[in-house]
Structure formats: structure tokens, C-alpha cells
Write a sequence for this structure.
């Protein structure tokens, strides 16, 4: 599981973390991502970096489904603490090939306690 | 037991590389295996041989090079993270038309696949620095 704790553009962690996820997807592992704390801002809709002149890599999150990374857990409390709702996030979806290619949301809201249990179940956790 | 380490902070500003070094020494001393040490984010700055600390301080980079040579350690630097931060081996320097390279002995530049493989292969995967 890749745990994303940083806002997208103030540090390089989100960007270089996403690079690890995309490369790691080729390794046939069971992969998920969690977005906690300021990490929830990584999925915010309509990001625009033109004012700070840094690369806007937000579009790459839409590619995650193509790499079969379709389990994105967003911590409910982190969203609420930042005045966000799931409607403020990019509508990331995938086609479920086990369910007649139905389009489903990659994003799952999860509360803090349940996310803790999910951490317990992981073999390897990478924090970015 | 098979350990893999990841180092995400540069030398001297943060203790991460020092702690990882002492941990690696302890692991080897206890007879365990270090499968790989992967340098990412600013951690790639642990791999430049241009580093010149004052003589009365530890030499973080040389220390890694020496440990690698003594124990045949696999010190891997992420190529994309390294290029962003000006860490180049001879091949990369030539490819990008740079006038010099700076990778320290005992390190090699490779891709993120090496990090994922380390996570899969190791019994314990430890991360130093954020």
C-alpha cells in the first residue's frame, strides 16, 4: 500500500510517490493507495499550477486505472478537516472486468479507525 | 533475515542516512543479510563523491562506499530522482551532454523497479527519512 500524506505541489513527495506507484504496477502485486492528511489534496479536482510554474502531474492519477491501480482509499476525517467532500475530488473510475466492464469509482471513503485496520493487513507500506 | 532499506533524505541536513548506516552495520554484525539499499527523493544526494565535509566530521558518503565494498552491498540510486538533483554516473553524464559525473564508488543508478523488487524480496523493509 502506498500512503500519500503530502499536498501535491509544495514538496516533491506526491509526484515522486506517484512515479513509484506507476512503476510498481508492473510487478503484479496487490496494490492500493491511501490518501490521508494533506494527501487528500492530491486528488482535488481542477488543479492548476500555472501560478507557481511547477509541473502539473494531476492528470497522471487518471492513468492509475490503466495500470490496474483501482483501490484508492481516502480518509473521511482528513477530507472533513479540510472542508472537502468527495465531490471536490477528481472522478477517478475504472472498468470492472469481473463485473461486465461496469464503470466504478476507484475512490473509497474510509474512516480513520478502519484505515488503521487496513494498514495492519499490509505486507509493505510506502509513505510519501 | 533479509533486510532492505530505503533512504529518503540527503546527508547532514537529516539524521536519516546516519541512522540507516548504523542500522545496516548492526544488521550485518548480527549476521543478517542486506538485500539492497535504495536511495530516493533527496536521499540520492548520499551518492555524490563531490561531497567534502570538514575533516573533523563523519564522511557520510565515503562511509557508505566503504560499507558497500566490505560487504558487497547493493546501493541503488533512483535514476529519475538522481537526474532531477544532478547525480550522474559516467553513462548518464555522456547521454545528457554534461561535463562531468559524480556518482560515488559502490553506488549504481537504476530504476524504481529495484525498489519494488526490494519490497517483495526482503523479509523486512525499512524506510529512513520522509
Amino acid at each position: 500500500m502506498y500512503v500519500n500524506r503530502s499536498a501535491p505541489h509544495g514538496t516533491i513527495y506526491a509526484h515522486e510517490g506517484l512515479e513509484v506507484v506507476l512503476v510498481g504496477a508492473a510487478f503484479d502485486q496487490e496494490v492500493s493507495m491511501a490518501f490521508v492528511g494533506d494527501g487528500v489534496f492530491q486528488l482535488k479536482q481542477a488543479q492548476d499550477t500555472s501560478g507557481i510554474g511547477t509541473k502539473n502531474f494531476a492528470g497522471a492519477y487518471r492513468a492509475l486505472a490503466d495500470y490496474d491501480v483501482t483501490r484508492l482509499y481516502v480518509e473521511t476525517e482528513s477530507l472533513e478537516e479540510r472542508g472537502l467532500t468527495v465531490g471536490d475530488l477528481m472522478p477517478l473510475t475504472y472498468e470492472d472486468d469481473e463485473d461486465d466492464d461496469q464503470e466504478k469509482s476507484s475512490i473509497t471513503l474510509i474512516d480513520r479507525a478502519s484505515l488503521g485496520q487496513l494498514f495492519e493487513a499490509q505486507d509493505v507500506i510506502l509513505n510519501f | 533475515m533479509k533486510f532492505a532499506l530505503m533512504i529518503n533524505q540527503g546527508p547532514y541536513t537529516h539524521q536519516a542516512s546516519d541512522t540507516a548506516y548504523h542500522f545496516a552495520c548492526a544488521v550485518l554484525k548480527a549476521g543478517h543479510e542486506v538485500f539492497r539499499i535504495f536511495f530516493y527523493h533527496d536521499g540520492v544526494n548520499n551518492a555524490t563523491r563531490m561531497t567534502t565535509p570538514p575533516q573533523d566530521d563523519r564522511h557520510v558518503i565515503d562511509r557508505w562506499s566503504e560499507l558497500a565494498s566490505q560487504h558487497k552491498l547493493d546501493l541503488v540510486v533512483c535514476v529519475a530522482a538522481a537526474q532531477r538533483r544532478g547525480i550522474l554516473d559516467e553513462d548518464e553524464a555522456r547521454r545528457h551532454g554534461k561535463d562531468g559525473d559524480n556518482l560515488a564508488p559502490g553506488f549504481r543508478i537504476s530504476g524504481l523497479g529495484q525498489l519494488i523488487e526490494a519490497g517483495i524480496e526482503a523479509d523486512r523493509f525499512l524506510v529512513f527519512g520522509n
